[in-house]
Specification:
A hairpin with a 3-residue loop joins β29 and β30 (627-632). This protein is an alpha+beta fold. Helices cover 31% and strands 26% of the residues. The strands form 12 sheets. The protein has a 4-stranded mixed β-sheet. It has 5 domains: 36-155, Alpha-Beta Complex (Topoisomerase II, domain 5); 240-319, Gyrase A, domain 2 (2-Layer Sandwich); 356-469, Orthogonal Bundle (Topoisomerase, domain 3), CATH 1.10.268.10; 488-567, no CATH class; 570-586 and 597-756, 6 Propeller (Neuraminidase), CATH 2.120.10.90. α3 (61-71) crosses α4, α7 crosses α12 (341-382) and α12 (341-382) packs across α15 (412-419).
Length: 756
């Protein structure tokens, strides 16, 4: 055996480089195409092999870990399980790739239960990443023992790298990619596909900045463009918190979102230490009121303490404000590189074009193979009697096959298909089906050939995929980015509140049932009431970049919304079964999300309308069958949270309350029906009665949608929503409407009217 002498310096250097590259490629740095490290990719592929799709049942995590270790990743079981857990934690990943059942840890740093106790399956986002993997879209290599194959990368229709982010420490380098918003990333990818010369500044028009699963506020937007260009820098993020005024002049600080990767329990512990050390003498108590609906930390202050100043101290001394590193280090063609955000987007775009190309080649080949068989079957059917005779006269299958090949110029594959043909396929109807199939296959071959040969056609498919992805998985931004488009922390924004809980800027309006359109100051609160009598709220800054209510019940939806500073001191609620309730706002504002403000029983139905209650005026309650009752608002006494309320109107059997309005001296009422007609009537035609009485019948044929008080010579700007989802905008002027005469004004079945 020959012994080679190598200087120790060179051997150490080469060994170190080999080890470093092994760690970089095999463990720590994600692939730019699917955003996954090898162990993550192997877990998802193993679960795909096991058939653990979202529509199937859960299986024990230990079984998944065993499959990963046995087939793809012969390392420590605990390391595999920790990776699986991380992919299921919604406070770590914006769009979890795994759905977990059981204890998967918490934002307080609690560890997950052992793998024998927890269960898991793939999420809808993971399914997108694995879509078309069986259509020759990616390369496969032998696993560690050569017993099976594993993918080198996933097809990944879902842009995982930017949407979920990545972090890892290798030898000599590290990666830290913050998570981003799916809708923004899809939009940026579409724009990149349309214009490959797009620069980082233009990309940042679509991707506003990081979007962390734990929310928070990004403070240094002006620096982000430079950081995203270079692929290196720091995001400065702070918690979302506000100061609440309590009775007796005291204040308290409520924290509803904390920076990404901050341990909530350790954060509260640090606050308590600062109180003991005397740095935060103004604090009298700290409570963690978080539940499954959301995070809520309450910091109670002493009587003379200034809440704003204490909050600034908390930002200074605790992790309520922290820096998150940006370090876009990824594997491109197997090599670690530090790149900007445009390269991250472009490499994903290139990967998807390659997947579309290979998938199209696969479908093209399958279509050509099938067309070949169909043509053979049609030849056989055209000479059916002779073919049957040739087969009957053959001594065995081989002879029959040879006759078919020689006599009818069929290939071996076509001859086998003819011999496999069942008798029921010999009818004229089956021949017609084969001719139709031949026509469809020719069209498919033409389409897939065009896709394979044309870059433009592949780009069109990519744009369509990203558009569908953005529409199919609407993603409301969680993290507010200060300074986007020049917005400051003062001012206001016009938002649209939807019944499904979305709150969106008017400029980004989506389809859906609109509850209200209103201006929200950044330093104020937007309050929303659901049909189940619960109150939810978002801060004005959250409304600026979109938010979504987390309902407590599956069938819950919003029915009303108002801005706190613009609201009266009391709120009026009406239920479908005729109950009304007046609630002082001070009793429930800024309490825990989903606080019940009316105790709904089965005989009350759902909340159907929410209004701000004036001190004077009359309340109009109206029903779907056209009954209307008018009585003084003063007849409803203020009630406490959780009480039942009082009977507002007595209903006929089968009738329901559809709404209510307050009238304060307006001369006319506009009656709007579901058939799109409007009628003006004198308001005095509806006499005042006592609360709890039966209403006056004003409609007999059409169902009532809304009644709007209108003064003489005034106009109303209306938005009307139809059952099909169409929206009409109309300005209704009092003097243009004839008195007591129904006028057909809108097409479609009107279901809701909003005064703009």
């Amino acid at each position: 055996m020959e012994i080679l002498e190598v200087p120790i310096e060179e051997e150490v250097k080469q060994s170190y480089i080999d080890y470093a590259m092994s760690v970089i490629v095999g463990r720590a740095i994600p692939d730019v195409r699917d955003g996954l490290k090898p162990v993550q990719r192997r877990i998802l592929y193993a679960m795909h092999d096991m058939g653990l799709t979202p529509d199937k049942g859960f299986v024990k995590s230990a079984r998944i870990v065993g499959a990963v270790l046995g087939h793809f990743h012969p390392h420590g079981d605990q390391a595999v399980y920790e990776t699986l857990v991380r992919m299921a934690q919604d406070f770590v990943m914006n769009y979890p790739l795994i759905i977990g059942q059981g204890n998967f840890g918490s934002i307080d740093g609690d560890p997950p239960a052992a793998m024998r106790y927890t269960e898991a399956k793939l999420s809808k986002y993971a399914v997108l990443m694995l879509e078309d993997i069986d259509k020759d879209t990616v390369d496969f290599v032998p696993n560690f023992d050569g017993s099976t194959l594993e993918p080198t990368v996933l097809p990944s229709k879902f842009p995982n790298l930017l949407c979920n982010g990545a972090s890892g420490i290798a030898v000599g380098l590290a990666t830290s990619i913050p998570p981003h918003n799916l809708k923004e990333v899809c939009t940026a990818l579409i724009e990149l596909a349309k214009n490959p010369d797009i620069d980082t500044k233009e990309i940042m028009r679509y991707i506003k900045g990081p979007d962390f699963p734990t929310g928070g506020v990004v403070e240094n937007y002006d620096e982000l463009i430079e950081f995203y260009e270079k692929g290196r820098g720091q995001v400065r993020i702070r918690a979302k918190a506000h100061v609440e005024k309590l009775s007796g002049g005291r204040e308290q600080i409520v924290i509803t979102e904390i920076p990404y990767q901050v341990n909530k329990a350790e954060l509260i512990k640090r606050m308590a230490e600062l109180v003991r050390e005397g740095k935060l003498k103004e604090i009298s108590d700290i409570r963690d009121e978080s539940d499954k609906e959301g995070l809520r930390i309450v910091v109670e202050l002493k009587r003379d303490a200034d809440g704003s100043k204490v909050l600034e101290k908390l930002y200074k001394y605790t992790q309520l404000r922290k820096n998150f590193p940006i370090n876009f280090v990824v594997l491109i063609n197997g090599e670690p590189k530090q790149v900007g955000i445009k390269t991250l987007l472009y490499e994903f775009f290139r990967h998807r074009l390659e997947v579309i190309h290979r998938r199209s080649k696969y479908y093209l080949k399958k279509a050509e193979e099938r067309l070949h068989i169909v043509k053979g079957l049609l030849i056989a059917l055209a000479h059916l009697d002779q073919v049957i005779q040739d087969i009957k006269s053959s001594k065995d299958t081989q002879e029959a096959k040879e006759k078919l090949i020689k006599k009818y110029s069929l290939t071996e594959a076509q001859a086998n298909a003819v011999l496999d043909l069942r008798l029921q396929r010999l009818t004229s109807l089956e021949r017609q089906k084969l001719e139709e199939e031949e026509k469809e296959l020719l069209e498919k071959i033409e389409y897939y050939t065009r896709l394979v040969e044309s870059e433009e056609e592949k780009i069109k498919v990519f744009i369509e995929e990203m558009s569908n992805l953005s529409e199919s998985f609407p993603a409301v931004r969680r993290t507010f980015v200060e300074g986007v488009g020049g917005e400051q922390r003062t001012g206001s924004i016009t938002v649209v509140v939807f019944s499904d809980g979305k709150v969106m800027p008017l400029t980004e309006i989506e389809e859906g049932e609109v509850v209200n359109i209103l201006d929200v100051p950044f330093d104020d609160g937007l309050f929303m009431v659901s049909n189940r009598g619960r109150v939810y709220w978002v801060a004005g800054l959250q409304a600026l970049q979109g938010s979504k209510v987390s309902f407590k019940e599956p069938e819950e939806r919003l029915v009303g919304a108002f801005v706190r500073s613009q609201a009266a001191d009391r709120l009026l609620l009406a239920t479908s079964e005729g109950y009304v309730k007046k609630i002082p706002l001070v009793d429930f504002e800024y309490k825990a999300q989903g606080t019940n403000i009316i105790k709904l029983t089965e005989d009350q139905g759902d909340v159907v309308k929410v209004l701000q209650s004036p001190e004077e005026g009359d309340l109009l309650i109206f029903t779907k069958m056209g009954k209307i009752l008018r009585f003084p608002v003063a007849e409803i006494s203020p009630a406490t949270i959780g009480s039942k309320g009082v009977v507002g109107i007595k209903l006929d059997r089968g009738d329901k309350v559809v709404g209510m309005r307050v009238i304060r001296g307006e001369k006319f009422l506009l009656i709007i029906t579901e058939k799109g007609t409007v009628q003006k009537m004198v308001s005095e035609y509806v006499p005042r009665k006592s609360r709890g009485s039966k209403g006056l019948s004003i409609l007999t044929r059409e169902r009532l949608v809304d009644i709007l008080p209108l003064g003489e010579g005034q106009f109303l700007d209306l938005m009307l929503i139809t059952q099909e989802g169409s929206v009409f905008y109309d300005r209704v002027r009092e003097e243009e409407l004839p008195l007591n005469k129904a006028q057909k004004r809108w097409d479609g079945k009107i279901v809701k009217v909003v005064i703009k």
